[in-house]
Amino acid sequence: MPLKKNNKLAAEAYNQIFPGYPKELERAVKGCKTLLDIGCGENSPVRHFSQKPYSTGVDAFGPSIKKSKAEGIHDRYCRMNILEIGKRFKPSSFDCVLASDVIEHLPKTEGLRLLRMMEKIAAKKAIVFTPNGFLPQGEFGNNPWQKHKSGWTAEEMKSMGYSITGINGWKPLRGAYAMIKLRPRLFWSLVSDLTQLFTRSHPKQAFQILCVKEKGAKHDIRL
Q1: pTM of the predicted model, to two decimals?
Q2: Which pLDDT band holds residue 138 (cuts at 50, 70, 90)?
Q3: Distance between alpha carbon 39 and the CA centroid of its chain, in Å?
Q4: Is the dihedral of CA 84, 88, 92, 94 positive or negative?
Q5: Residue 92: helix, strand or coil by DSSP?
């Protein structure tokens, strides 16, 4: 029993020093009582929040919604084309609108459209999580929406009024699906976590980027 307790304490201490994406996202969502999760998939990071806002999950892929429902991740669900959210949800109807690992699956013009709609629906914050630049990825899991069609850089998102946090460490260490590219993976995973101490505040060097735009921030999105 003492060994298990010590391991748990060690894991908690490690997570405090090297907070992962779900922890960083929860910090970004803090202060929001309602959340719209666009392209929520079957395993949204919202599930890891210690205090979850009232959330609605939106996805076009039925099996993903079914699995998410079974896990009770969101309070409500809407199966629909995510590019139709502007017709379905009213302006400022959710405190926060989140697109986690979504915009890279859309062509650039459609991604910009989605961002504009998200910012309109959000009463407080629009939040985007995406690879830093284009990351090749094909279809998997019989889900045609998994293919990557565009890339978004830290500089680009900053130019549109988003504050940027680097996620998952130094970019060259990871590849498709954020997997560590070098072996032994356990060692290089630790190295990646160590580099996160730098890339968090230097997102140009990070593998992924967490982008937050406060309501009222300047820089309109142009198509």
Answers
A1: 0.92
A2: confident
A3: 10
A4: negative
A5: coil
Domain 2-167+207-214, CATH 3.40.50.150 — does that match? yes
Domain borders along the chain are: 2-167+207-214
Phi, psi of 38 (to 5 degrees): -85, 130
Is 74:34 a contact under the CB 8 Å cutoff?
no
Any bridge partners for residue 54, and if so which? 34
What length is written for the chain? 223
Cα 64 from Cα 53, distance rounded (Å) = 21
**Host H or E run for residue 126:** strand 122-131
Distance in angstroms between the alpha carbons of the first and the last residue of the chain: 59
Give residue-wise pLDDT tens across range 40-49. 999 999 999 9
Q: Which pLDDT value is given to residue 10? A: 57
Token pair of 14 as six digits: 């490690």
Q: Which two tokens stand for residue 87?
A: 């017709």
Backbone angles phi, psi at 67, to 5 degrees: -70, -40
Structure-block tokens of residue 160: 């549109």
How far is the C-alpha of 57 from the C-alpha of 39, rounded, in Å? 7
As a whole number of angstroms, the distance between CA 209 and CA 152 comes to 9
Q: Which two tokens stand for residue 67?
A: 């699995």
* pLDDT tens digits along 186-202: 999 999 999 999 999 99
